[in-house]
Amino acid sequence: MKKTSRIISIPFLILSVFSLILFSCQSTTETVTENKSKEKEPENKVTIKEIEVGIRYYIQETIKQSGGKFHVENDTLSLDLRLVRVHTEFLANLGGGTYFACTDLADEKGDIYDVDFFLDGEAGDMNVTRTDIHKLNGRPFYTWKKNKDNGTWFTVPIEDAGNKLLGVVEGKDEFVFHYSVQLPEIKGTGKMWLPIAQSTPFQDVEILSVESPVDEKYITDKKYGNRAAFLNLNAAQSGKEVTISYRVKRKEKQPYAAKEDENLVQYLQPSSLIPVNDRFKNIAKKAIRDKTKDDPIIKSRALYDYVIDSMSYIRDGEFGTGDAVYACDAKTGNCTEFHSFFIALARSVNIPARFAIGASIPSARNEGGIEGYHCWAEFYAEGKWWPVDISEANKYTALATYYFGHHGANRFEFSRGRDIQFQPQPKSGKINYFAYPILEINGEKVKPKTDFSYERKEIS
Prior knowledge:
C8orf32 fold
């Protein structure tokens, strides 16, 4: 295949009508049929698979020649990138020996650029004739409009293409978060463990108040460093309320450096509901296929896409336990099933992955209640932890690129890890995941009423 490329960065370039696919990696792709040639396609028509081979070869060869990065630029951007994904669902033969390919490429910070390519030539001998930087983290720099007079299409810049309406607050967010537990009737003795959120590089947490009918004791699990408030209860506390209020300053998360002494081995091990075995290994290998060689980022993106495509967000049946086997069999669940399935697949092909849980803060309003917890995952590659939110990507396909490598600022982490152990430990055993309180009355597990609410504050 030829290795030359001509990069075009004219902001309002007019296109001929044969190339009207809206040239974007999105589900709203349109095909225009007017003025379409009625000539019979040649017998040696280039296949979609051959277009995929062509664009992969071009990118890989360019990377080899440039010392490991794919350079692309336009009037305002000059980027050194590496391949994350070829969008095979949007490859197209435009006719007349012209082809379209759409890719995701990442910079060293983990920002994902949607880059579109036009190629010409024949199978095995293709030449990239045009390269366009279309999106950053799922946000388009431009869209396409049609000239009604002559039927041609042209690009129009998008001045404000934010993701807020789809539930994402970018940059920073600040809010007061209230965690409230209503104690049931206690006949005998009770013990309760409440998650206590902590500051991290992405959230600054201040406890404003703790209101409890008894004194609490703070304990920490040795494996993950999670904190809990431990309460000894009796009949006198029946019907009382325990509340914790936090002030939270949160930053948008993107890939970040792992600690030098981090124990990655623990993120390759199975947990009670996240097995690591041949079943998940075989599924993962089938999803990855052999074209990705040994690149953990491309492998992880393939697993991410596989979980999005194979599962449905349905809160029915035995959902909410984070059972990877159930997720694999039922292909339904909530965020716990989505991320447990992904973690099992990743770990089974030697990609460290981990689980965290907390709450998602609504972006469209500045106060109110929150309907339960939300959880997410991270995988390790090239010295960094890459955040993913697969259940949200499944619900909002327009944000699938964003959620591979990013978490919005509007979330609050309570704890991380699975099979959490404290001292003292609940009689029910290891804590599967830690978002709601663990309450035991006379050694029997009881589910108390738990509510979350918030008020957003101005970012300082």
